[in-house]
């Protein structure tokens, strides 16, 4: 595992990284927090499946059906191994992380779910945080509106850390579920799961992690984390879009009602009622994203072959380099932790007097530097910092210090244009 | 490259030194428009006097250089003209912005606003340029 991290070799796995942009600009892709690029190993597995093995899964009684089902279920095994799930049946394939979060929210306050842990009404509380992506805010707002429960949230400190000073007042016997980001998609902050979870257990609530920004970038072991639910998405982890994952403790999945009804999620159907298949199929109504799931299986295999520890180490070096280099751009303010402690490779910033849309436009158009600008689906967090938008650079296994140099050169030019 | 042509000197000048910025009295109508995708927003007041003459267009807001400069240019063009005249400029400006860079702008009608021609090639930025102009149209229509 201690072999040299060969970023140039890794870059060759990603065909898009060698393309030229219009005008002969090289591509500098610093937007992996938004969506990552795909290696040949994933593209080929998906192509091969479509070309030679494709059929519907779980219901076709022929060779292709068997091969397709086998590949689809093998992807589930790979994902289960990748996140340390104690049981493969605890991996539910969804469309994306948003669906996984909505699926869990839907299990609460649901008249067909009588498990006391999921019963929710006025007086009960849901706890999230101010640094959440909209996909970990809106499903809980909807739940609160459906049930009359109260939505509460952790604040964020000026340094971009979760404010735990009122942990005991916020998470109480009234709390049914706490759902927070494992790693912030704007600040890069990695949240102290163990501290929050200890309190959650004290009060007998459940805990969910939005791990969309952590699973692709660092070792995540659901058993070691000890939470109840965890959501992430394939497309940020060198896999395709259209496939996400919900991991949940098996006995909770058994207690939860189906999210969507349809084909393959049933055991038996009568005209007036149905019984349901056990998890995970109970939550996978209809023909699933077959090739996408298989692509995700290939993606996590690819990440494992590189070593997720090694990827985390590489990103850590990039982040160290970026924080230093960006610190020398006049008028630049990093929104989020400025040290490497509990922090991932996502750096958001403002440039004094220049709107992020102008920053992003010039970076892209003159330097081929792709960053994300705007509120990154985390508007409340931006409101908290009193800014409408930020520019965000996010790093992955294929990025290099030279690309951060290109970003910094671009930012100096942006300042010149708007001086 | 292409963006260079979008950030015309005139646009940067208006962004750095916005004309007529700040909300003023008296006014007939005030509107607030936002661009939900990028968070740009503008509050605009319009005062129309005798003979449909636009006496003042005042505004405040936040956003990128394109959206802010567009408001400043609009203030200059609209103030002192008749509502009817300004609406034909709004129409021509909208046609230019929605033309995907393929519309030949009518400089006679547009005046300084012709500087925004380059923005039309960037679909994501067209709504920045149009924010203030749509707010103006909305305010004027409500005043009528």
Automatic annotation (TrEMBL), chain A:
CDD domains per the UniProt record, alphabetical: SufS_like
Q: Which UniProt keywords apply?
A: Pyridoxal phosphate, Transferase
Domain (Aminotransferase class V) ranges = 28-407
Q: Which InterPro entries match?
A: Aminotrans_V_dom, Aminotrans_V_PyrdxlP_BS, Cys_dSase_SufS, PyrdxlP-dep_Trfase, PyrdxlP-dep_Trfase_major, PyrdxlP-dep_Trfase_small
**Cofactor(s) for this protein?**
pyridoxal 5'-phosphate
- Its EC top class is transferase
Gene3D superfamilies registered for this protein in UniProt: Aspartate Aminotransferase, domain 1, Type I PLP-dependent aspartate aminotransferase-like (Major domain)
Biological process terms from the Gene Ontology for this record are: cysteine metabolic process
Task: Give its E.C. classification number.
Answer: 2.8.1.7
Q: Which reaction does it catalyse?
A: (sulfur carrier)-H + L-cysteine = (sulfur carrier)-SH + L-alanine
Select a single GO molecular function from the record's annotations and give it: cysteine desulfurase activity
PANTHER family on file? CYSTEINE DESULFURASE, CYSTEINE DESULFURASE 1, CHLOROPLASTIC
The protein's job, in short, is:
Catalyzes the removal of elemental sulfur and selenium atoms from L-cysteine, L-cystine, L-selenocysteine, and L-selenocystine to produce L-alanine.
Q: Which family does it belong to?
A: Belongs to the class-V pyridoxal-phosphate-dependent aminotransferase family. Csd subfamily.
Q: What's the protein here called?
A: Cysteine desulfurase
Provenance organism: Planobispora siamensis
UniProtKB/TrEMBL annotation, chain B:
Q: Name one GO molecular function term.
A: iron-sulfur cluster binding
Residues in the signal sequence: none
Q: List, alphabetically, the InterPro entries matched.
A: NIF_FeS_clus_asmbl_NifU_N (IPR002871)
Q: Which CDD domains match?
A: IscU_like
BP-aspect Gene Ontology terms: iron-sulfur cluster assembly
Q: Name one Pfam family in it.
A: NifU_N
* NIF system FeS cluster assembly NifU N-terminal domain ranges (all copies): 6-128
- Protein name (record): Iron-sulfur cluster assembly scaffold protein NifU
Native organism is Planobispora siamensis
Q: What is the lineage of its organism?
A: Bacteria, Bacillati, Actinomycetota, Actinomycetes, Streptosporangiales
